[in-house]
Specification:
heterodimer, A: alpha/beta, Rossmann fold, 3 domains, seven-stranded mixed sheet, six-stranded mixed sheet, about 30% helix, disordered N terminus, B: mainly alpha, two-stranded antiparallel ribbon, 14 helices, globular, disordered C terminus
Chain lengths: ~525, ~350
């Protein structure tokens, strides 16, 4: 991938936004520590940082949702004069031309794109609506930027990428001069992400300033002009994208060297789980599978690639023992499964890592120790005559906390005090300690920082080494291409045959995720495409 | 502008102190309606205290009143822990009482050590069944248990009325709609001579301690806590939410039924439609005041009972309405709810206002 080529002029007249010495404390926690950040006209600045680095707090201060304890936010007025933005006033930020595109869109699904865009800008007390001027202005915006979308379609009929365009148009229609995008590629296919980047560069060329909040390094390198890295609330580095590389930014973010995940070649063993012609029809595509065939073998990571909402949930529910197929069979070690039940699955050596670790993975008010033992409290090890053996539960927790480096006040602390990365470590400790034969890892590193991500990958690769079969459901292509042996693509409830990772071309994978091709590869691995480039 | 910030981990002082503070504030606030009624405030408080604790008799009366409140309070606490919103303790109480009367008024006879467990088991089973029905409707069909349990209260009361006019009617009652009395061997013995307080109190206290141990230390209690706090995670980890809910229903309904048994076999001696002045509903308040802690239920039931008995006696003495007791209990509940909010959130008052 090439980095963005041109660099915008950086004269002081072009200065659009300047944050100076912004500090925000929550009790003893310093969320933002004297952060300086400038953005010029026509510049794309990437704001990088792990979870909890202070990105969101900083943006909340910019938008007036929080008041900074120290420091100033200055915005160039339309006449070019720098003026201090009134703190704690969201309306002032909007008036100054700062627009935001949230990760979760804020569109009314039943209205058209046009309705959504003009919503709130029209006077209420008027009998007739005149939208010709709005159309004209939007037409101009679309022509200039390539943000093409059918504005007369109701939003629910649009794809995720199109919805995002509507969001961006909405901000531009309100004369945004600075656009802030929060994790804009999280929901996009690689192709959609590429076209978003093209649009952003075009918009930047017309003078729009852009701040992208991101954690995927490859994307940041591809689109931005300048990268600011936050860590622990402070800005630890700022560099031109042309001077940056993957490794140097990752180390800036984490503050230490990140071990690269690497899989060693290994011959797969016998099949552990086989889904044959499995259909689950729940009426909506998110929760349905149609005639799916999947096989995962010992010592192999099978990646399931796909854009979220294409049936991954149904597949995960099935393997987790929470749902049963309407038709077709599931075999584990050659034996047909007849009892689909989470307890039975967990006790029979299936490790399940849930997609939503806060919602399905832990009971926040219960202790760390109780959460680690939750799948096994009925086993003789942890109870006597129905009474819990707290000694044993505690011992296991202490062991797990040390082994998996779960940062917590102790085994008796409520689990809700843990950060996302530590909750994931807790879940890994819960399920991997029992040397499982099959691991269902559903988005195991989503939302985790680089360090925790590499830890999750290391654990999965370790389990692979010791012979477990792993089904890795992920939306992160880098993750899939790095650690899986085989990759199958899920789209609209259909799953393609698995392809060896080394034979896969990244852009082709993207097309398949968008449902444009069924199964381009012969399952035996004879390949016609050049080896894919992995990040 | 007022902002609320969640507290990550409220300390024990906050957790235990707030309900006590709330109860105190509620009692102090009672001075306002007392003053409006023109009563001498200091004297009224004195009368309230002596009405609840002034003599062996008044304390016995207070404890008699606390007995069913502990049991219905436990019924509500265990159900609410699992997020099973049982509003039907009143109906379960009457069903328990009716079952106790059905087996305990002479159909069978035996020594006390047989008959007392028999009426207890019959009453608890009846109460449990009353809640298992709505719970199955909830887990199978998604029927809202608030509606079903609440409406069942009225159905049960009418059913009791029907039975008291028919099958269970005491031929010796000279036309009053009441059941035959519980036979001596099934009656709960009194704890003190010539006082009304009976072994139901001991049973209630033991139940509270047993429930506390059950919830904290057994696998079933573990599963109840997990389901109540995060049903999705419990289900994912392999805990059967339906089975857990039915267990909770059996416990909660059974405890409410036990309250009914204790009232007919201990306090009243026979079943009538005025057996309970709303103990089932008051149990919800007791449980909320106790923050759903079984041991806390003992304290909050004693508080509510003393307010009721004290205010009753005070109102008779100086002629203000005994509804004052309801008022104090209601205010205590409001104070606890506000206090509960304040333990979970820190309040910041920003002097600087935001321009709108």
């Amino acid at each position: 991938m090439s980095s963005a080529a041109h660099t915008p002029s950086e004269t002081s007249q072009d200065l659009l936004l300047s944050l100076a010495g912004v500090t925000k404390r929550f009790g003893s926690l310093v969320a933002n520590d004297a952060i300086d950040l400038t953005v010029h006209k026509g510049e794309i600045v990437a704001l990088l940082g792990e979870n909890g680095a202070g990105k969101t707090t900083l943006m909340n201060i910019l938008f007036g949702h929080y008041v900074a304890d120290e420091g100033t936010v200055t915005v160039a007025g339309r006449d070019g004069n720098l003026e201090q933005l009134e703190p704690g006033a969201p309306q002032a930020a909007l008036d100054a031309g700062i627009g935001m595109v949230h990760q979760h869109f804020t569109l009314a699904e039943n209205l058209t794109g046009l309705d959504n865009i003009v919503l709130g800008t029209e006077p209420i007390f008027r009998l007739r609506r005149d939208r010709s001027s709005a159309r004209a202005k939007l037409g101009e915006l679309m022509a200039g930027s390539g943000l093409n979308v059918d504005l007369d379609q109701p939003v629910y009929k649009l794809t995720v990428g199109e919805k995002q365009r509507v969001e961006i148009l909405k901000a531009l229609y309100r004369n945004a001069r600075l656009l802030v995008l929060d994790e804009p590629t999280a929901v996009l296919t690689p192709q959609e992400a590429d076209s978003l980047f093209a649009i952003l560069r075009k918009l930047a060329a017309t003078g729009l300033a852009v701040i992208i909040i991101a954690h995927k390094l490859a994307e940041v390198l591809a689109v931005s002009h300048r990268i600011a890295v936050l860590r622990g609330g402070a800005k630890v580095g700022e560099l031109k994208t042309s001077d940056a590389n993957h490794k140097s930014i990752a180390e800036l973010m984490v503050g230490r060297e990140v071990p690269a995940s690497r899989r060693t070649p290994r011959a797969p063993g016998k099949p552990v789980i086989t889904l044959a012609d499995v259909t689950i029809d729940r009426g909506d595509s998110r929760r349905s599978l149609h005639g799916v065939n999947v096989t995962a073998r010992e010592g192999e990571i099978l990646g399931i690639a796909g854009v979220s909402g294409n049936g991954q949930a149904a597949l995960a529910q099935l393997i987790a023992g929470l749902d049963k197929p309407d038709s077709g069979t599931v075999e584990i070690f050659g034996e047909k499964v007849t009892k689909f039940d989470a307890h039975t699955f967990a006790q029979n050596g299936i490790a399940r890592i849930p997609e939503d670790r806060h919602h399905d993975g832990m009971v926040g008010s219960m202790t760390v120790a109780e959460n680690i033992a939750i799948e096994d409290v009925r086993s003789a090890e942890y109870q006597k005559l129905g009474f819990l053996d707290f000694e044993a539960i505690r011992k296991r927790a202490e062991h797990a906390i040390a082994d998996y480096d779960v940062r917590c006040p102790g085994p008796d602390a409520p689990a809700r005090l843990l950060s996302g990365g530590n909750i994931q470590k807790l879940i890994l400790a819960r399920v991997l300690e029992k040397s499982p034969k099959l691991i269902l890892a559903n988005q195991p590193s989503r939302g985790l920082d680089v360090g925790a991500q590499s830890e999750v990958h290391r654990r999965l690769l370790e389990a692979r080494e010791s012979g477990a079969a792993i089904i890795l459901i992920s939306e992160d292509l880098d993750e899939l291409l790095t650690i899986s042996d085989q990759i199958a693509v899920i789209h609209a409830g259909h799953i393609t045959p698995a392809m060896p990772t080394d034979s896969i071309d990244r852009s082709e994978l993207g097309l398949m995720m968008a449902g444009q091709k069924a199964a381009p590869h012969a399952p035996d691995g004879t390949t016609t495409t050049k080896p894919g480039e992995t990040a | 502008m007022i902002r609320f910030e969640p507290r990550s981990n409220p300390g024990p002082l906050l957790v235990y102190g707030v309900p006590v503070l709330a109860a105190t504030i509620a009692i102090l606030l009672a001075a306002i309606p007392l003053a409006l009624a023109g009563a001498p405030i200091i004297e009224a408080y004195g009368l309230m205290i002596s009405g609840a604790f002034g003599s062996v008799f008044s304390t016995s009366e207070m404890l008699t009143r606390a007995t069913p409140l502990i049991l219905t309070g436990l019924a509500a606490a265990i159900a609410f822990r699992a997020k099973l919103w049982n509003i039907g303790a009143e109906g379960q109480l009457y069903m328990g009482a009716m079952a106790a009367v059905a087996v305990g008024s002479g159909v069978i006879d035996g020594p006390s050590w047989v008959m007392i467990p028999v009426v207890i088991i019959a009453g608890m089973a009846a109460g449990a069944l009353m809640l298992i029905g709505p719970t199955l409707l909830k887990t199978r069909l998604g029927v809202d248990e608030v509606v079903t349990t609440l409406l069942l209260n009225f159905i049960v009361l009418l059913f009791v009325q029907m039975m008291l006019e028919g099958a269970l009617k005491d031929p010796m009652s000279m036309g009053w709609p009441q059941s035959e009395p519980v036979i001596d061997s099934a009656a709960f013995p009194a704890l003190l001579e010539r006082m009304r307080v009976h072994i139901g109190l001991i049973i209630a206290l033991v139940s509270a301690v047993a429930l506390a141990i059950f919830v904290k230390r057994t696998i079933w209690g573990f599963e109840i806590r997990a389901v109540g706090e995060n049903a999705a995670a419990a289900k994912f980890s392999g805990i059967s939410v339906t089975k857990t809910m039915i267990l909770v229903a059996a416990l909660s309904g059974g405890l409410a039924g036990l309250a009914g048994v204790s009232e007919v076999a201990g306090t009243r001696g026979y079943l009538a439609t005025d057996l309970s002045p709303g103990y089932g509903y008051a149990g919800i308040v007791v449980a909320m005041l106790a923050r759903l802690s079984p041991i806390g239920v003992i304290a909050s039931a004693l508080f509510v009972a003393s307010v009721f008995v004290g205010a009753d006696s005070m109102s008779r003495a100086i002629g203000v309405s005994s509804y004052l007791a309801d008022l104090i209990v209601a205010m205590a509940l409001l104070c606890v709810l506000i206090g509960g909010f304040l333990t979970r959130f820190k309040v910041h008052f920003d002097r600087k206002s935001v321009h709108g």
